Amino acid sequence: MNETLLDIRGLKTHFHTFGGLVKAVDGVSFDVKRGEVVGLVGESGGGKSVIGFSILRLIDPPGRIEAGEIVFDGEDLIRKTEDELRAVRGGEIAMVFQDPMTSLNPVYTIGRQMDEMLKLHTDLDEPARRARCIRMLEDVGISEAESRLDAYPHQFSGGMRQRVVIAIALLAGSRLIIADEPTTALDVTVQSQILKLMRRQISERGAAMILVTHDLAVVSEMADRVVVLYCGKVVERGRTEDVIAHPAHPYTRGLLDSIPRITDRQHRLRQIPGTVPDIRKLGKGCSFRERCFRAQPLCAEQAPKLAPVRHSLDAACHFPLEESEA
Amino acid sequence: MNRLLSSEFLYNYRRNLPAIFGSALLVIFGLMALVGPLLVSQNPYDVSQLELMDSFKPPAWLEGGDSRYLLGTDGQGRDVLALIVYGARISAFIGLTAMAFSCVIGTTLGLLSGYYSGTLDSIIMRIADIQLSFPSMLIALFLMSAFGTGIVMVLIALTAVGWVVYARTVRGSTLSEIQKEYIQAARVAGLGNFQIIIRHVLPNVMTPLIVVSTIQVGTFILIEASLSFLGVGVPITEPSLGLLVKEGFDVLFSGIWWTSAFPGLFIMFLVFGINLFGDFLRDELNPRLR
Amino acid sequence: MLGYTIKRLLQMTLVLFVVSVIVFLMMSFTGDPVFMVIPIDSTEAEIEQARRLLGLDRSLFSQYWIFLTNLLQGDFGRSYVFRQPAMDLILERLPATIEMVLVAITLATLVAVPLGVYAGANPNRPASRGIMAGSLLGISLPGFWVGMMLIFFFSVRHQFLPSSGRGETIQFLGLRLSILTADGWSHIILPAVTLALATLAIILRITRAGMMEVMRQDYIRFARAKGASRRHILFGHGLKNALIPVVTIFGLQLGDLIAFATITETIFAWPGTGKLLIDSIYRGDRPVIVVYLMLTAFIFVAINFIVDIVYTLIDPRITVK
After folding, report:
1. For B87-289, which CATH superfamily applies?
2. What is the per-residue pLDDT across B195-212, written as a single tens digit (0 to 9) for each?
3. Which of residues 54-83 of B touch C (CB under 8 A)?
4. C89-285 has CATH 1.10.3720.10 classification
């Protein structure tokens, strides 16, 4: 079962804005195996969400996919026509958006928005579609599902809406779910419920998931593998336990150090110094060098390439952390 | 206000072709209204300069046209171009004056309404609500028919329909402005209400005022033209562009189109110029008004 | 819902009452209507008698009281010119006006909404910029002039369409309508187009602005991620959300069209209420003006009420209270 479902190679998505060229995604490669959860991690502005939208080719001008391959189940999505893509969107690959308050259409009932998904991607008749919607709502933990179908989004709380959004994403039996910060907009108490729900529903269905988040703690709970992004580039990737335990890239180390740990009161929170640089003004060299505690003259000269470091880890760093250091 | 003088404003202006076109139209029309009478061959209201022989000459480029009368002549031998130049002055005068009147009255009421919310505010806004549920054209028409015609009456009618827009805009801006801390600070510092309104609130509502005023001039010119066309606007001795079109209507059916076509075309370009420029101002100065 | 309706009905009554006061006061300032009804060579005594007959000798307040009680009893006064009930005169001409206004607004909406959706969904295309420039030109046009130019082109120069009147009409449900005959259509098309232009431009601009706003929303992206077709996204998901400001403007425009119908009817000699109003203004036929104003006031408040109801049908978040 460990065969590759999605293989992204050298993806470049750029935005041609008035302020200059924004290389939001600049040569990103990673893969997702069947039934696997891959976490895409990085600070905001790191191009994580753009990757999600690029996979479904939902990039609008001034943005454009400049190069790369997105091979899904053996077929390159970049080469597909808009009509072919429509069958993939929602059918093969579904998305869950960040803000449940805005991702449901306010003027249609929940039932109608769920039904739309089934109408587009299945041949079921009306009663069958309705039954499936009800079952799906129950699966995501919404009680009185039948009557809820006729409710409008504004009659739901944020957490309930996100359950609905997840239900819609799962409805048509997609093999890959792209979840873009699915819990960021929710209350902390609701967050873990939703995450557990997603994890369970996805594994029950044998689907794969790309979890886009800025929160390494979420990733460590959810993901099999992690891809860490910085300024549109992959800086580190590998199995979750390897990345969390002994990261090779100083940026990942920084991210991990900035997570508060309740269990360890002695632990000192450390921030990564500085902020994400203006992505329009990156020169040659490593884009993390100005915030990096290990930076050397070489880092300003030459951009590091992604290379195997140890175990499952690949990192783009001239001076990766040793296992003992990390 | 500072936004108007900023370099970004000028930069955007230079890149915005419609805005340049619109303001070019306005400059041309402005010059025409100012110095036009010096340039045209005759004063159409000086009977001694008119030749009845020259009546209903078509535009100069058509067969039977006369090079002295570029846009042709009307039934009294008056040069259509000259009529337009003189008529444009009246139309522009009415549009600008009505704008000034309704701006002063509307702004005052809007400031009072926003600053002293309460009974006064409710009364002003209820009147505005009722008035806004009727088309301004109908209100103006009704006022003209009730109180008689003439330039002064047109100005009164336009002011009566125009103040609402100002009052609403200014009230909105005032309400959001007086929430801000510096107004509270000014109050604490013991500044009087009048001083706060004049020194602090008014300057901050200037931007929307400029935007609204631009668009209003165009609206007023169109309403005035319509009233005059219906015969309840300006008197025949002081014909605006709208009245010129009306006078041309009677001879249109005998195939004489130029006496009405050109004045109307002129109204269109005048208002178009105003709207193009106004659109640009709105986008630049106050995107919220969009 | 019932409570809301009652509240709105009370509001409407209040507005109509205020309008009746204003109309009455304004009308009492305009000239002395007694001279409208008496022969020129009448004696002082005859004038006085006519004045008493019309109730003009009483105080302003009791005149208004009579005016109001008459209104409430369905007595809207008699036209000085036609010597028949003013209400009958207007009702007789109302179908012609409503017919023209409805044709105009239908025409405007059918053209404006698709163009507005297109321009709002593709704001940067040259075609969209062209549409927007055209719409700005549309709101800059003097309507009466457009009507005249249409008459000149289609009626005078090419004698292709008639320039005046309603043409052949057919009785339908007790109403005389032009739109049921080909001849009627040939008569209505020019005035309706004239009337429609400004409205078309305004509805187009509102639709575009609404669409631009809506297309930025997450739920549009979510619908795209579901694999919905572009057409369904624009008209199913987008337009319904963009419709709320459009409905507001639609109601206001309906009112504007009735007002501007006065001009269009004058140009095209369309025998509707607008032409009657203008004629009555020229002749100082006060009762007809009063009835016209009261009736249009009633129509406007009714439109506002309907618009508010339509909101709740479009947007489930809005509930009447």
Report:
1. MetI-like (1.10.3720.10)
2. 888 888 888 888 888 888
3. none
4. yes
